[in-house]
C-alpha cells in the first residue's frame, strides 16, 4: 500500500497528544484517591495546550488525505458501521472535552466538573486510538493488517510516545515521577518491540489467497495472469502497490527498529545504570521514539498487500501457489439458467 504522509503525521500528533494526556490525567486521578501529589497547575496548562495544538494539527494534516475536504463532516453519518467515522467522532470529541477540562482547571470550577471532563477526555482518547487501529485491523483485504496484533501494537505506540514525553517533562519541571516514567517508557517500548516482531513473524505464516480463490474457481483449473489489462499505471497500481517502497523496505525497516526500540531502550537502561539523567538523554529518547514511529508507520503501510494486486500481478508470490484443501472437490458447471 502507498504510505499516506498525512495519516502518518496524524498518528504522530494524535499519538503524542493522547498518550501524554493518559499519563498526565492518570496522575491527577490517582491524587484524588490520595495516591501521589498530582501535577502543578502550570504544568497541566502547558501540557494541555500542547496536547490541544497537536490534536488540531493532526486533524488539519489528516484532511489532506480526503478527496473532498468540504465533505469531511459527513464522516459522522456512518458512525454505526464505519471505524473511520468513529475515529473522526472520537478524535473531535477528545479535542473538545480536553479544552473543557483545561477551562474547568483554569477557572477552578471544582473537582466534580473537572474530573467529569477529565475522565471523558481519557475515555474518548482511548476510543479514538482504538478506532484508528481498527480501521486497519478490520481490513480483510490487507491480510498483513487483519490481526489483533495491529490494535495492541498501535495502542502501545501511543503509550510509548506518551511515557517518553512525560519522562522528559518530569525532568524539565522537576517532578517526582521521573523514575516511574523511565520504567514505563522501558516497559512499553519493550512490549512494543515484542508485538512488532510478532507482527513481522506473522507475515511468514499468512495463508494468502490465490487467483482461483478470488474468482471462486476450483484448484484443478489453475489461473494465472497473462495480461494486467493496463499498459500504464493507474490508481490501483499506484495506491494499492508502492513499488519504490517495496524496494526500500529492507533498508528502512531495520532503521525503524533501531530508532523506535533499540536507541530508547539503550538510553533508558544507560540512565538507570549510570544515574546520568539530563535533557539530552531524555529528549533524545522521546525524539528517537517519535522519528522511529514515523518510519515504522511508513513500513506498516508498505508491508500491506491488497488482494486486488492479484489481478495486476503485483501480489506476493505465495499468492500464486495453489494450496491443497480449498475447493478441491468443487465442480465447474456452465448453465444458461444460472
Structural class: mainly alpha
- State the order of secondary-structure elements, H for helix, E for strand: HHHHHHHHHH
Overall geometric form: globular
Q: Compute the number of structural domains.
A: 2
Tell me about the biggest sheet? none
Strand content: under 5%
Could you tell me the radius of gyration in angstroms? Answer: 23 Å
Give the helix proportion (percent range). 55-70%
Q: Which residues form runs of ≥5 with pLDDT under 50?
A: 322-338
Feature tags:
single chain, 2 domains, globular
Structure description:
This protein is mainly α. 64% of the residues lie in helices and 0% in strands. Residues 322-338 have low confidence and may be disordered. It starts with a helix and ends in a 35-residue tail after the last helix. The longest helix has 32 residues, at 243-274. The protein has two domains: 1-138; 171-338, no CATH class. The chain has helices spanning 5-32, 41-62, 83-106, 111-137, 148-172, 178-202, 211-214, 235-239, 243-274, 279-303.
